[in-house]
């Protein structure tokens, strides 16, 4: 099977029960003080855009998932992560 | 003569600057909490280093929206001296008072060490006593000090003599090795077209007393002395 | 872990301790009270195994203003100024979350110094990891240094000295010790005790959440495979709030309206209030629902035991509360008035009017001592039979290998990530010489600071290893022209329930005591970390 180059996004955030001082400060000291009262909260995270060669969407997702765990790209003690396959190029 | 040092939440070199101005130079200086800062009492203002708002979002990004910066803007317009040191430089850039951007160091780490700077122009409020070409020993301590601007902008800035200091080696040469953070053209400091607003990443307040310098000089003091001279004229 | 049908919450207490608690109270404790005893009688909070051994250390001299037993030791440095200093460990959190574990370690030790009224002026970080070629060590090393750097740099306190050692014995349990020194005027220091009934208790700083509940009991167990799932045990540090706290607290202490200060670390509100009331011989009454929180629906147990970061407790004269509020509002620091100091001799906690705990503070603060057995380890006999290695043929090659060895090589990669110049006090910087030297700005004086430890020597001979560590530290400060005045010690050992480990600890402290007496340098405080 011909491999395709998949775009896989990894979004890493602090677990909901863990504090996010950066998000809180941006919300309190910038957004709220800037008058945007309809904004209710802000959480920050890290975004990785990974291009990976794989046979199909499932394999692309698995490669990235395994890589994140093996290399400690996120720490399961404090982080959650979402992996989304966005598309591919032949 | 009265100088203000503005204290933002998270500023941490504020006391150091006040110490140099008051104890080393004997200049009347006030440490002013940003919420209370009003420009009409002061002849010059210094934005000190530190981590205003924790450097969250981008260094200096949140502080640049403080009402204190509207006051600083008024001072910039009427030609009063304004110095932004490290985080202060980042705040001045975010507030649009200085050109360019300050990005994370290319080594991606915080770097604290002494560097050599070359003075590129003595036509600013903070370099009038420093001959062009003079080498100064001043320490840096930052994670987001990589100066960046586009080629066109840099051309314009050079024409307007807006590049104030560059990182050089001990012999005054602009080299890759002498550049601690990947700044374009080894730029460590810039000013506005009028020359009254200067921003620099290195910390002159840490190099204002011989006892603190590994070179046993006090090159940093020259920036503050230049400011005093500028105010007296 | 003792699970009993009759105890409604998980506790880490021995059967004997459970019996003692029931006897002391004369009744069945409430769930909240069980939680309070569990935390206060944990090894980390109570030092129940180590107290009898630590008593051997000399703790007085004409220069000692405050010795062990308070948030930090305080030493007179002349000209009306004192230096408060202390060392602490944050080994277990750092081993599972190095960045935040190390960062909150700094947060904790800085609060201890701040609680004496001193302005923190320097940090020291002795670190120990496994062999540098393992993935785990590289991960821990990189992120511990980053955590210390990011936090210390942000709060503007220079990290001016430290140690880094790599040895396979630290592979699973790295050691992250941090020390902080602060400066204060001799007549303006604060001690952590409640002495004035009627004072209002003001809780300031970060909002309280469910963080770290059982963080202290976690530190009192060994790290096993399950640790990574211990979700609530790691807190996220917030250096911005800490910096604001430092400035606000120093300004508030200057008003003269504050009679007691304590930081909230391990054991949270329970630890702070019980220790302060016990020391002051008073009582407290807390209204838990008044605490400013960041999670909904927290119950009394959680409110009493939470270890949310960046919090301090002030005992404020009611006349000065408005002034204190004004300063807190200037720095935009959250606060709540959570209770008052009383003369009842009881720690009473209420939740929406109902009493959920009522305990004499000294029962919580003075856990019964546990006498551990000590037995000389069997490995020592084996070591005496080791053959002497052959002398290498090419000594210059050996020299290069030694210089390359991570334990000897230059540590510039570490200390350049620390802002060691902030504060304009640092005269002798990392890498310059044998100890850091910082000036005390208000005077013509300067202090030297250093940390030392020889793990290998301590393993082979705990008595002489510890004695040697103190002697080495003293020599290092002398080399920069200073007179050694006092020290603080951080003991990192394994499981004290193992008699061979307890023997190591006991002999180590005896060695320290021996050298202390010989050199005339008192111990003014310290930290004991077991279960490493």
Characteristic terms for this protein:
heterotrimer, A: 90 residues, alpha+beta, Mth169, Chain: A, 2 helices, 36% strand, B: 233 residues, alpha/beta, Rossmann fold, two-stranded antiparallel sheet, 11 strands
Description:
The complex is a heterotrimer of chains A (90), B (233) and C (532). Chain A has 90 residues and is α+β, with helices and mostly antiparallel strands. Chain A has one domain: Mth169, Chain: A. Chain A contains 2 helices and 3 strands; from the N terminus they run βαβαβ. Chain A has a 3-stranded antiparallel β-sheet. By secondary structure, chain B is of the alpha/beta class. Chain B has a single domain, classed as Rossmann fold, CATH 3.40.50. A 9-stranded mixed β-sheet of chain B has the order 2-1-3-4-11-10-9-6-7, with helices on both faces. A two-stranded antiparallel ribbon of chain B has the order 5-8. The model of chain B has no long low-confidence stretch (mean pLDDT 97). With 532 residues, chain C is an alpha+beta fold. Chain C folds into 2 domains: 203 residues, PurM-like C-terminal domain (Phosphoribosyl-aminoimidazole Synthetase, Chain A, domain 2); 273 residues, 60s Ribosomal Protein L30, Chain: A (2-Layer Sandwich), CATH 3.30.1330.10. Chain C is built from 19 helices and 18 strands. In chain C, β17, α19 and β18 form a beta-alpha-beta unit. The longest helix of chain C is centred in the first third of the chain and has 21 residues. The radius of gyration of chain C is 23 Å and the shape is globular. In chain C, 57% of the residues are buried. Classes of the chains: A alpha+beta (90), B alpha/beta (233), C alpha+beta (532). The interface between B and C is medium-sized, with 33 and 31 residues.
In total, the number of strands of chain A is: 3
- The shape of chain A is elongated
Number of domains of chain A: 1
Q: What's the end-to-end separation of chain A, in Å?
A: 12 Å
Q: Can you identify the CATH class of chain A?
A: Alpha Beta
Strand proportion of chain B, as a percent range, falls in 15-25%
Question: Number of folding domains of chain B?
Answer: 1
The amount of helix of chain A comes to 25-40%
**Number of helical segments with 4 or more residues of chain A:** 2
- Architecture (CATH level 2) name of chain A: 2-Layer Sandwich
Q: Which chains make the largest contact?
A: B-C, 33 and 31 residues
Overall CATH architecture of chain B: 3-Layer(aba) Sandwich
């Amino acid at each position: 099977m011909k491999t395709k180059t998949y775009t896989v996004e990894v979004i890493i955030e602090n677990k909901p029960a863990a504090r996010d001082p950066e998000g809180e400060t941006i919300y309190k000291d910038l957004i709220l003080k800037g008058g945007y009262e309809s904004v209710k909260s802000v959480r920050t995270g890290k975004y990785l855009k990974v291009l990976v060669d794989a046979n199909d969407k499932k394999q692309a997702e698995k490669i990235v998932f395994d890589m994140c765990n093996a290399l400690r790209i996120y720490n399961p003690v404090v982080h959650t992560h979402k992996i989304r396959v966005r598309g591919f190029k032949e | 003569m009265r100088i203000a040092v503005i204290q933002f939440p998270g500023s941490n070199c504020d006391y150091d600057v006040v110490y140099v101005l008051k104890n080393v130079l004997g200049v009347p200086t006030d440490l002013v909490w940003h919420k209370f800062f009003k420009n009409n009492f002061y002849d010059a203002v210094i934005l000190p280093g530190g981590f205003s708002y924790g450097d969250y979002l981008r260094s200096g990004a949140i502080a640049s929206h403080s009402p204190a910066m509207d006051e600083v803007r008024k001072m910039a317009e009427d030609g009063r001296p304004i110095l932004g040191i490290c985080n202060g430089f980042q705040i001045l850039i975010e507030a649009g008072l200085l050109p360019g951007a300050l990005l994370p160091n290319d080594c991606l780490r915080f770097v604290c060490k002494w560097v050599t700077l070359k003075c590129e122009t003595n036509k600013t409020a903070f370099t009038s006593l420093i001959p062009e070409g003079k080498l100064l020993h001043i320490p840096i301590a930052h994670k987001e000090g990589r100066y960046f601007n586009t080629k066109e902008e840099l051309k314009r800035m050079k024409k307007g003599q807006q590049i104030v200091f560059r990182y050089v080696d001990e012999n005054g040469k602009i080299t890759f090795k002498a550049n601690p953070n990947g700044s374009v053209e080894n730029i460590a400091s810039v000013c506005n077209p009028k020359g009254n607003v200067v921003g620099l990443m290195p910390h002159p307040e840490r190099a204002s007393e011989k006892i603190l310098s590994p070179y046993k000089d006090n090159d940093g003091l020259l920036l503050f002395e230049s400011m005093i001279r500028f105010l007296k004229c | 872990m003792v699970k009993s049908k009759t105890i409604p919450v998980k506790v880490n207490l021995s059967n004997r301790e459970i019996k003692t608690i029931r006897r002391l109270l004369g009744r069945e404790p409430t769930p909240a009270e069980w939680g309070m005893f569990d935390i206060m009688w944990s090894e980390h909070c109570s030092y129940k195994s180590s107290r009898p051994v630590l008593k051997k250390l000399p703790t007085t001299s004409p220069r000692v203003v405050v010795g062990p037993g308070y948030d930090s030791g305080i030493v007179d440095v002349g000209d009306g100024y004192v230096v408060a200093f202390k060392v602490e460990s944050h080994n277990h959190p750092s081993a599972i979350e190095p960045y935040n574990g190390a960062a909150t370690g700094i947060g904790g030790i800085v609060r201890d110094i701040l609680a004496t009224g001193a302005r923190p002026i320097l940090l020291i970080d002795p670190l120990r990891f496994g062999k540098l070629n393992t993935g785990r060590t590289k991960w821990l090393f990189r992120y511990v240094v980053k955590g210390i750097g990011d936090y210390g740099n942000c709060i503007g306190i220079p990290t001016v000295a430290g140690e880094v050692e790599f040895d396979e014995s630290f592979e699973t349990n790295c050691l992250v010790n941090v020390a902080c020194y602060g400066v204060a005027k001799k007549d303006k220091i604060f001690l952590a005790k409640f002495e004035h009934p009627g004072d209002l208790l003001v809780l300031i700083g970060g909002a309280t959440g469910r963080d770290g509940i059982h963080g202290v009991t976690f530190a009192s167990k060994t790290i096993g495979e399950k640790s990574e799932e211990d979700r609530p045990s790691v807190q996220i540090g917030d250096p911005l709030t800490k910096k604001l706290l430092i400035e606000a607290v120093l300004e508030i202490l200057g008003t003269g309206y504050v009679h007691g200060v304590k930081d909230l670390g391990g054991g949270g509100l329970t630890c702070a209030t019980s220790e302060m009331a016990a020391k002051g011989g008073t009582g407290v009454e807390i209204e838990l629902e008044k605490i400013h929180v960041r999670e909904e629906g927290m119950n009394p147990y959680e409110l009493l035991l939470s270890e949310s970061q960046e919090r301090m407790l002030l005992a404020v004269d009611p006349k000065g509360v408005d002034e204190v509020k004004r300063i807190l509002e200037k720095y935009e620091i959250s606060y709540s008035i959570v209770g008052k100091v009383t003369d009842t001799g009881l720690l009473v906690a209420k939740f929406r009017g109902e009493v959920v705990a009522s305990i004499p503070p000294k029962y919580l603060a003075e856990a019964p001592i546990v006498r551990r057995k000590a037995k000389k380890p069997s490995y020592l006999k084996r070591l005496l039979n080791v053959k002497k290695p052959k002398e290498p043929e090419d000594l210059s090659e050996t020299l290069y290998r030694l210089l390359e060895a991570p334990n000897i090589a230059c540590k510039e990669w570490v200390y350049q990530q620390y802002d060691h110049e902030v504060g304009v006090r640092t005269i002798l910087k990392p890498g310059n010489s044998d100890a850091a030297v910082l000036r005390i700005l208000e005077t013509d004086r300067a202090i030297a600071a250093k940390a030392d430890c020889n793990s290998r020597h301590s393993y082979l001979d705990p008595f002489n290893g510890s004695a040697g560590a103190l002697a080495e530290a003293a020599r290092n400060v002398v080399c920069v022209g200073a007179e050694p005045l006092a020290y603080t010690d951080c003991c990192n050992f394994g499981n004290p329930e193992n008699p061979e480990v307890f023997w190591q600890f006991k002999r180590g402290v005896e060695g320290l005591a021996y050298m202390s007496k010989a050199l005339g340098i008192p111990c003014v405080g310290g930290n004991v970390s077991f279960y490493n």
